[in-house]
């Protein structure tokens, strides 16, 4: 038995018998449209709040590094979704027709963000007319290269620069996504194809584009670190040999065939432990040695500041290891007094913008775990979203009576040569 409750109605459906006198697919499609309308209106209200925060410069302070970081922290959004919300908020006053459709629930945040990123304000009404009926890829293809004439100052919407995300999927495989302007993409593609051809010339065997990229990056890493031992120590793949298995730094255990391959020919640096904990240095050293630094980075998986955009989960080369109690004030160089911070948050901490207390070895939700506070003593934490519950004309009541007008793209093929955007007015 599945219960769907979205403030409109409750639908009980056991997977066998559909709702009486309704076709199941059509009934579910209507429910999806109604829920989408609610979500769209909620995102539009969030955009309005972010727009106000931008206008009043009310998002900064206390270690917050960007409006996107502010949203990640306070709304629990991914960095990609936060970037889309901020992109719309920055142009909210320039796109009245698009924003009106967004607030009525007719456009999703992804559709609206695509218009905000590509459409000049001189033609936004015409673009919004298409966006209501088109998918996000269709809007991108139609708008990104459309020759808007005549050119106006507002038409010079800056195109986002190259963007790359890295991570690990549920199966433990590394996933890389790269988005860039067309000219940069052509440069990247040409470089990888050259590496593929060079690999074939050297080995006499055909290789895939993925293998060529791996070879190109490995060659660059070898060349960049060969002459500088300090860089070689900072930029290397760390393999942890433990009784429970073998794993890469900051990642889950590896399968046996990869473990055997990686440990066949490696340099091993021992890390002594006592009762399962690394032997502490105490007050013997102020600086953190490479072995202990690797352990801290593996534990923290990136900057520990709440919602920090640099907390990728596997990064380590670009974080600083900070003493929670400063060494000159008696703090030991031990894991329980060390944590990872990106350079921005490390600098802001020493400038007094915020403070850190607690143990980095405990989970953040533990009472003894890390606590971040502003210079005024206010907690810095990811706030849990609250459900709308105002009984008198509140958000929940309005949505229940008027769920929104989202109908979604038509699904038809888009022929770009027939697309024509008219200037507003």
Features:
single chain; 425 residues; alpha+beta; 3 domains; two-stranded antiparallel sheet; 14 helices; globular
Shape: globular
Helix run count = 14
Report strand order across the widest sheet. Answer: 1-2
User: What portion of residues belong to β-strands?
Assistant: 5-15%
* Proportion in helices: 25-40%
Number of strands: 12
Order of helices and strands: EEHHHHHHHEEHHHEEHEEHEEHEEH
How would you sum up this structure, described in words?
This protein is of the alpha+beta class and 425 residues long. It has three domains: 2-160 and 388-418, no CATH class; 163-228, no CATH class; 282-374, no CATH class. Helix content is 39%, strand content 12%. It has 14 helices and twelve strands. The chain has helices at 24-55, 67-75, 79-90, 96-103, 109-118, 124-131, 136-144, 182-203, 209-226, 229-234, 256-262, 290-300, 343-350, 395-401; strands at residues 2-5, 10-13, 163-168, 174-179, 239-242, 245-248, 273-274, 277-278, 319-323, 338-342, 354-357, 371-374. The strands form six sheets. It has a two-stranded antiparallel ribbon with strand order 1-2. A hairpin with a 2-residue loop joins strand 7 (273-274) and strand 8. Helix 2 (67-75) crosses helix 3 (79-90), helix 5 packs parallel to helix 7 and helix 8 (182-203) crosses helix 9. It is globular. 24% of the residues are buried. The model is unreliable at 1-16, 151-156 and 390-401 (pLDDT under 50).
